[in-house]
From TrEMBL:
Keywords: c-di-GMP, Phosphoprotein. It catalyses: 3',3'-c-di-GMP + H2O = 5'-phosphoguanylyl(3'->5')guanosine + H(+). The keyword Phosphoprotein applies. It comes from the Bacteria. Residues 146-183 form the PAS domain. Residues 304-439 form the GGDEF domain. Its cofactor is Mg(2+). Signal peptide: none annotated. This is cyclic-guanylate-specific phosphodiesterase. It comes from Nitrosococcus oceani C-27. GO terms for biological process: cellular response to nitric oxide; phosphorelay signal transduction system. The modification 4-aspartylphosphate is found at D67.
Amino acid sequence: MKRHQHRGINKMRGLRVLIVEDSEDDALLLERHLRRGDYQPFVKRVETRETMLAALQTQPWDIILSDHSLPHFGSMDALTLLQKESIDIPFIMVSGTVGEDRAVEIMKAGAHDYIMKDNLRRLVPAVERELREANIRRQRQAVENERARLSSILEATPDLVAIMDLEGRIHYMNQAGRQWLGFIKKNHYAGASLLAHYPLWTASLIRDTAIPAALREGVWEGEAVILNPSGGEIPVSQVILSHRNALNQVEFLSTIARDISERKHYEQELQYRVTHDTLTHLPNRILLRDRLIQVLAHAKRNQRLTAVLFLDVDNFKQINDGLGHLTGDKCLRTLAHHLAGCIRESDTLGRYGGDEFLIILSDLRSYSDVETLIKKIRATVSQPLKLNNNDVFITLSIGVSLYPQDGDDEEALLKTADAAMHTAKHSSPGQCRYYRPEMNVRGSELLALETDLHRALEREEFVLYYQPQLDVTTGQITAVEALIRWQHPNRGLVSPRDFIPLLEQTGLIEEVGKWGLNTACRQAKAWHSQGYPIRMAVNCSARQFQQHFLDIVHQILQKQSLDPAYLELEVTESVVMQDTQSATYILQRLKEMGVTLAIDDFGTGYSSLAYLKRFPIHSLKIDCSFVRDVTKNEEDAAIAETILLLGNSLGLEVVAEGVETEAQMRFFQDRHCHRIQGYWIGRPMPAKDLFPLITGRNNP
Ligand SMILES: Nc1nc2c(ncn2[C@@H]2O[C@H](COP(=O)(O)O[C@H]3[C@@H](O)[C@H](n4cnc5c(=O)[nH]c(N)nc54)O[C@@H]3COP(=O)(O)O)[C@@H](O)[C@H]2O)c(=O)[nH]1
């Protein structure tokens, strides 16, 4: 008994039954039949519309068993109520009176079955079938709901989604896809080929690579381009999937394509930024290197000549510091523009960094093409750059390396061009140097020198030598030029040509220059005190020529109690032409202080008459290079004579420097040059050695 009970309880199935019935006995009868059928029913009997609605709203029901006709309610009313409330519950009519026609009518109205009250043996099987079918209906509905949800997601997604057969014919395409491809109505795509909506190169990629890969491996992912109706290209990231049936045969393909226009735009932008200089928009170091590799590969294959030009703006720091960074930037931009105008379309100009530019010349017919370009560049930069109402003159130091002789890869050519440029910068700024193997040795020497220079001032290794200048009219030594020397502990006396450029680059020139000015003024004062009013000429480099230099000069003159008229500051044309506005100001203040001013190396730079008139200058020094051959070379003689005439007409003193022979001396004497400086009078020498020369000349 216990075992039977146990089995019975296990078999009992719960069932929530709503019975529409006015007879309690009939309801109990139904309940009993259900129990016999191994159900454990939870039963609620209702007999009006209101009680049925309340029961429906209170809890869910598994089945409704309804009598056909109640005093104020019936199966038709119950079905209407269910429809109105959109409730799908198996509905079995249980009646003793209904005729066949009426029964059919009720079935049409939504009842799932009907049972005669005198044949209740059918009840349990009917309930079971209806429960099963209701379950199937629910599952179908769930699938349908799921399908509708997925469809609405596909329709709403901004990506193109399509289903295709194995030939690429479209069977479904979502709204985004229809819009991209211009299918105005929903079914317009039916049978159209997706391949027709790609440009040729992408169509072949999809046909020959992507679809075979998707068929083989199940999926292909890549980038493609889709055409919009007006032929515009939409870059896409695309996935193609193959879908198999139960027999493992591919049944159809699906694809999802995402518009990556924005990403592509950013990628291009990024690529541009990585490879271009933001200031000048020229190729930067990375792209330059890349181009050089390509040019060299081409040159190797076709036995072509190639040249690399390293260009560096001389004294760019002064422009930046003096005129401000914005003007410095403008200077680089303007220069970049001018340089771009000098090269052929096949050449590459780029900004290598800071004030350094690089030009790659490919497919040269001969190396003379390089000379042609250099001449063009020279002619361009000899014109002033118009920067915010300033005429700024710049010079470029250029280093050239040639392929194949100076290196056969990009590394070697860049290194050799750089070495050549640095040699130009150190020995002759503003000039061009072709690479020579010994330049590399010189490079490491320069590095060692630079290290020593940092200690030279505190170790008192600098000395001043003085070179006499002869007054042509009186024959007396009326002035001397102070020239610095470096007494290096190991190298001996180092020429200023080897260390002044280094001092300028490192900024040490300001300290060393101050020391030189002070030492020279002290020496001038010493000679004055001994009865020899000698004028002291002191060189002033670009880096020193700043507004605070005015204070330095003033303080030193005060400290040494030297009459300012006996100090002559020598500046080159390039120093004053770099920033004419600021130069005019400084020169004017110096003049007001009583200091005299000389333009050094005159004739080698701009030689601009307009500026000479504007600047408060006292003298012009004819550069040694015109003096050397003045008696042999007509052109040099003509230049020297022109400078003399120019100086005289502007009321300036003219000094000829580098006079080594009597013939040269006579040349200048005959043309009323005011002062002569050169080995013929005396080499630069320590003050103690010069003194006897002064006393000898000045005490007839
Ligand atoms: N900013 C500073 N620059 C300086 C200073 N001292 C020197 N310098 C500059 O260094 C350059 C080289 O100078 P140096 O080697 O001293 O050469 C000078 C003379 O020695 C040389 N000279 C003079 N007479 C003759 C001659 O008859 N023949 C010949 N071959 N050379 C001769 O000319 C140089 C004079 O230079 P300059 O200044 O142009 O008058 C040089 O550019 C110096 O300016 C310093 O303290 N500060």
